[in-house]
């Protein structure tokens, strides 16, 4: 009898529990939370500042004295190269697109103040020749005088400012570090100044005399200066590292080629001048729209 009562009580309890469970609402579905990748988002607009040093090289060929050389035995300067170095500082702005977890492409423009300057003094002494009292060449038979021509040139090269507009493409070595190549358009203001002077010292008596006959005769000594905006091209490479979501630091190298230009055509200062430049700089960028990379599963 006792066993029958215990079994009946257990059966009643089970039925009550099943009925209560039937009255309860089904368990709601809970969507899995969004998983935030700990990486860095490179997509967005950025601005920054930079500074560094530039090693320029100017090649100059002075051709203006050739017109005078047709009448006088004027020594002519050989073409020469000159280093034009100095510090640089400026700013940049651009936009990056992070294509996927590994690749980043973008556009960047910058404007730079440049302290690249150089000055050069050249001097050439010509051969002694038979002349009259004015330094004009005469035949070898019984000259009254002889002369020596000295040619001098004072030159100055200066890159006042430059800017570039470039594409960038790179690979992420890590979520924070971008290694990239870059290339595009370069524009800069280049200034060239020149003063070429031709002086003739007359000696005597006769073709072998060594006594100066008065002060030197200055044939040309005009100074000229010209600034122009030149367009060229640039290529380079760099590395940029994010040390926070919005801030990054970079180191960059650029090679720039501004081609060749003729200055002071039709004068004794006429010269063909080319200019190329090597730029090394570091900088910081602030990205306005940086945020974590969000992956939904």
Describe what this molecule looks like in 3D.
The protein has 297 residues and is mainly beta. It has a domain at 50-124 and 160-196 and 231-288: Beta Barrel (Porin). 9% of the residues lie in helices and 63% in strands. The chain has helices spanning 2-23, 66-69; strands spanning 35-36, 44-62, 80-98, 103-125, 129-131, 145-174, 177-204, 211-212, 217-220, 223-242, 247-263, 271-287, 294-295. The chain has an 8-stranded antiparallel barrel. A two-stranded antiparallel ribbon has the order 1-13. Strand 7 and strand 8 form a beta hairpin. The longest helix is centred in the first third of the chain and has 22 residues, at 2-23. It is rod-shaped. The two termini are 61 Å apart. The model is unreliable at 1-22 and 32-36 (pLDDT under 50).
CATH architectural label of the domain at 50-124 and 160-196 and 231-288: Beta Barrel
The residue-averaged pLDDT reads 86
- The main sheet orders its strands as 2-3-4-6-7-10-11-12
**Spans of at least 5 consecutive residues with low confidence:** 1-22, 32-36
The shape is: rod-shaped
Q: Considering DSSP H and I runs of 4 or more, what fraction of the residues is helical?
A: under 10%
Q: State the separation between the terminal residues, measured CA to CA.
A: 61 Å
Total number of helices: 2
How large is the share of residues in beta strands?
A: over 45%
Sheet of most strands: 8 strands, antiparallel, barrel
Radius of gyration: 39 Å
Succession of helices and strands: HEEHEEEEEEEEEEE
Q: Can you tell me the CATH class of the domain at 50-124 and 160-196 and 231-288?
A: Mainly Beta
Number of strands: 13
- CATH topology of the domain at 50-124 and 160-196 and 231-288: the name is Porin
What structural class do you assign from the helix and strand content?
mainly beta
């Amino acid at each position: 009898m006792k066993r029958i009562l215990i079994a009946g009580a257990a059966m009643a309890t089970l039925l009550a529990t099943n009925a209560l469970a039937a009255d309860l609402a089904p368990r709601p579905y809970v969507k899995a939370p969004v998983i935030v990748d700990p990486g860095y988002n490179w997509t967005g607009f950025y601005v920054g500042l930079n500074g560094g040093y530039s090693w320029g090289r100017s090649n100059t060929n002075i051709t203006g004295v050739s017109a005078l050389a047709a009448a006088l035995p004027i020594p002519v300067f050989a073409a020469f190269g000159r280093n034009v170095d100095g510090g640089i500082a400026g700013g940049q702005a651009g936009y990056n697109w992070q294509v996927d977890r590994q690749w980043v492409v973008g556009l960047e423009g910058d404007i730079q103040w440049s302290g690249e300057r150089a000055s050069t003094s050249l001097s050439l002494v010509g051969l002694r020749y038979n002349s009259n009292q004015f330094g004009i060449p005469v035949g070898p038979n019984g000259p009254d005088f002889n002369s020596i021509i000295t040619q001098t040139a004072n030159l100055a090269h200066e890159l006042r400012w430059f800017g570039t507009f470039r594409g960038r493409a790179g690979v992420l070595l890590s979520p924070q570090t971008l290694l990239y190549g870059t290339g595009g358009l370069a524009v800069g203001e280049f200034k060239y100044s020149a003063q070429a002077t031709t002086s003739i010292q007359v000696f005597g008596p006769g073709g072998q005399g060594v006594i100066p006959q008065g002060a030197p005769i200055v044939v040309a000594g005009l100074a000229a200066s010209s600034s122009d905006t030149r367009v060229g091209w640039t290529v380079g490479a760099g590395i940029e590292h994010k040390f926070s979501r919005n801030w990054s630091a970079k180191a960059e190298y650029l090679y720039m080629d501004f081609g060749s230009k003729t200055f002071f055509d039709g004068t004794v200062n006429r010269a063909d001048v080319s200019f190329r430049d090597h730029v090394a700089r570091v900088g910081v960028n602030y990205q306005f729209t940086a945020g974590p990379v969000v992956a939904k599963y």
